[in-house]
Structure formats: C-alpha cells, structure tokens
Amino acid sequence: MSLLTIRNLSKAFGGVAAVNDVSFEVRQGEILGLIGPNGSGKTTVLNMLSGFLPADAGQVTMQDRDITSMRPDKLAQQGVLRMFQMTRVFTRTSALDNLLTAGMARGLAEAEAMKRAQSLIEELTLGPVQHLDAGQLSGGQRKLLEFGMCFIEPPVIAMLDEPFAAVHPVMREVMAKFIRARHEQGATFLLVSHDMPVVVDLCDRAVCMNAGKVIASGATRDVLSNHDVIEAYLGETHAGDESLAYGDHA
Ligand SMILES: Nc1ncnc2c1ncn2[C@@H]1O[C@H](COP(=O)(O)OP(=O)(O)OP(=O)(O)O)[C@@H](O)[C@H]1O
C-alpha cells in the first residue's frame, strides 16, 4: 500500500532543472532507497518532501492527504521526519537531555520521555557519553543521537540523507541494526545513500535519479543492474568500475 505518493514533482534553480517531473511512491513499511550520481536531485527531492523547499510543480500525498509544500513543523506533526546530511542536535546540551527534549517536544510526558530516552541511549550504544554535551560527541555518535531523537516517538516515515557518510564502521553497523529493527516493527524509510552495499542490504526497492529525472525504479538488485543506472554512475566516476551493487559491506 502506498504511504507517500509523489507525482510530477519539479524544482528549478535558475536555469537548472534540479528535479524534473519526478514521480514515485513509498510503500507502507518498506525501506526505499533513493540513489543516483552526485547532483542528480536526491537531496532536492528530500527537501521538498520534508517541507524545506517549496515545489515548483507536482503533488505529494500521504495516504490521500495533500502534504505538498507543507512546512517542516506541520509535517513533523504528521509524522514526516527528516534526518539531515549534517546532524542537528543541541550541541551544549547533554546527549540524554537532547533525547528528553525531543520526546517532550513531540508531546510525551517527562517520565515517558525519560524512559524512552534511556532505552534509546542503550540501544544506540551511547551510554558512556550520555552526559556529555552533544557538541563533544564524534560525528557518528551525533548521528546516532539524531536517530534516537527522530525515533523517540515513532515517525510515520523517516527520511534519511546519507546517514552512513563518514561514520565509523562500528557505528554504521549500530545504525543499520537500528534501521532493521525499526523496519521489522513496521517503520517506513526513505533512504538517500551513495553506499550501494548498504542500499542492497537494507532497501527492498530503489529509485534511481539522474539529471533530475527518475531513470529506474523497482527491486533494488534490478535497479542496480539496470543499464541506464550503470551508465549514469559510470558517467560520474570512471569506466571499468562496475561494482555498483556487490562490494562487501561494512
Ligand atoms: N539551493 C540551490 N541553488 C542552486 N542550485 C542548487 C541548489 N540546490 C541544489 N542545486 C543544484 O541542483 C542539482 C541537484 O542537486 P542535489 O543536491 O539535489 O543533488 P544530489 O543528488 O542530492 O547530489 P549529492 O549526491 O551530491 O548530494 C545540482 O545541479 C545542484 O547544483
């Protein structure tokens, strides 16, 4: 069943058609990978879906409700949450208090927010640093913290922009385990990633963009072996590197 339906979404910056007539759906309970070479328009799509950028044209519906260009705070109230490439935490507040604040901002009573915060601290292996200011955490630990903040009250859909980039492999595995566990509980994800082994590992289906357009969508392995997709990536990197999908994953 479709949770989010994106129809004919477009966005131009000056003369550049960053997103050009893009349509796809995110199904209830799936992890959908949004992939494509650098500059293909993935982040711009996420910016529009999460309300950080108004669409020039097109429509986004969530279970038949029109949420096109709704503001980020309104979307968050509807359970549409976005994690950024650059993490957003309160750097002068402890990791635990960041979680507590996130829980209370989402309407939880303090005791319930604390219970969930402590459980997330444990699950995300942040126990040893829970009382440090978030600004003192490593980049990977901050991303884990942001995962916790996003999931303190389960979102309807979580949009993740390159969550694994520049993160230590040990923490990547904690993140992947966290995503898998939430997926098993029925959570829906839209995951932008350049890390193909992780996309293969986690994503049921994938949508590939190139130059602002969707060039392939379907089962992840089918998309990654699609001729146009391989061409698009080869155009970006170097001829001969055909290891799109099948490296060892961290
Ligand atoms: N605010 C902006 N102003 C002008 N051009 C922009 C802006 N944001 C994105 N673009 C352009 O739109 C195109 C799509 O960019 P976008 O960041 O969405 O791609 P991407 O697929 O997320 O890339 P990457 O994988 O490198 O993050 C690029 O040509 C980019 O230069």
From TrEMBL:
Gene3D superfamilies: P-loop containing nucleotide triphosphate hydrolases
Annotated Gene Ontology cellular component terms: plasma membrane
Domain ABC transporter: 4-236
A GO MF term: ATP binding
Regions crossing the membrane: none
Entries under PROSITE patterns matching the protein: ABC_TRANSPORTER_1 (PS00211), ABC_TRANSPORTER_2 (PS50893)
UniProtKB keywords: ATP-binding, Cell membrane, Membrane, Nucleotide-binding, Transport
Protein name listed in UniProt: ABC transporter ATP-binding protein
Annotated organism of origin: Ramlibacter algicola
